[in-house]
UniProtKB/TrEMBL annotation:
PANTHER family: MALEYLACETOACETATE ISOMERASE. InterPro entries: Glutathione-S-Trfase_C_sf (IPR036282), Glutathione_S-Trfase_N (IPR004045), Thioredoxin-like_sf (IPR036249). Signal peptide: none annotated. This is Glutathione S-transferase. GO terms for molecular function: glutathione transferase activity; maleylacetoacetate isomerase activity.
Length: 227
């Protein structure tokens, strides 16, 4: 089974990171195409051959069906590769993982808007708004709930690494990259992501490939990358 995975910029495309991790962490082969975020034509124009898809990541199946949403990609891969482990095998843990992934997919708009993923730069102080801090508090709540409910004794939320963790990988980059306040529990989870070999591979690609995009720059004091 041959998949084609279309991705955005390694350093800035948080949803592309999620989609890529769904393949990389679960050993699913694919060929990849990287779009150019600096191209004035825009993402949709670069994907004209895969209409109606117009966003990244997009998975193109072997029968040329574009699946252009990270959560849809997770479910499609889980259906096609039931033994890969994208979702926990334990029904209770699977329900928790799906709940968390869905909330990440549709929520945390203040955090996502104010702190776009930027794997090339980290900030010592981002002066977060109350709405951003509320999003961080919500993350703390659901992460602690997941770990307690699943009795996780691993670095991950529901025991073994799952699609839910893939969905929170860019969040970890945001929390660390913008020096947002967090508990020891959250910091440990963030560190697990930043030191994960797959995440580090993706960031290394982001440092080597593509342009530094000026519209992601923030006027905050800069610090070294936290991992």
């Amino acid at each position: 089974m041959t998949y084609h995975l279309i991705l955005g910029d390694y350093a800035y495309s948080s949803w592309s990171l999620r989609g890529w991790l769904l393949f990389e962490k679960f050993g699913i082969p694919r060929r990849e195409t990287l779009l150019d975020f600096f191209d004035e034509a825009g993402v949709a124009a670069q994907m004209a051959d895969h209409a109606p898809a117009k966003t990244v990541p997009t998975l193109v199946t072997e029968d040329r069906i574009p699946v252009s949403d990270s959560l849809a990609i997770a479910e499609e891969l889980a259906s096609r590769h039931p033994d890969a482990g994208l979702w926990p095998s334990n029904p209770k843990h699977r329900a928790v993982a799906r709940t968390l992934a869905a909330e990440m997919h549709s929520g945390f708009t203040a955090l996502r808007g104010d702190c776009p993923m930027n794997l090339r730069t980290a900030y010592a102080d981002s002066a977060p708004r109350d709405e951003v801090l509320a999003d961080v508090a919500r993350l703390e709540t659901i992460w602690a709930w997941a770990r307690a409910t699943c009795e996780s004794d691993t670095p991950w939320l529901c025991g073994n690494y799952s699609a839910a963790d893939a969905f929170f990988a860019p969040v970890a980059a945001r929390l660390a990259g913008y020096s947002l306040p967090m508990s020891e529990m959250a910091e440990a989870y963030v560190t697990a992501h930043l030191t994960d070999p797959a995440f580090q591979k993706w960031r290394a690609l982001g440092l080597e490939i593509g342009e530094t995009l000026p519209w992601y720059k923030k006027d905050y004091p800069v610090k070294d990358w936290p991992a």
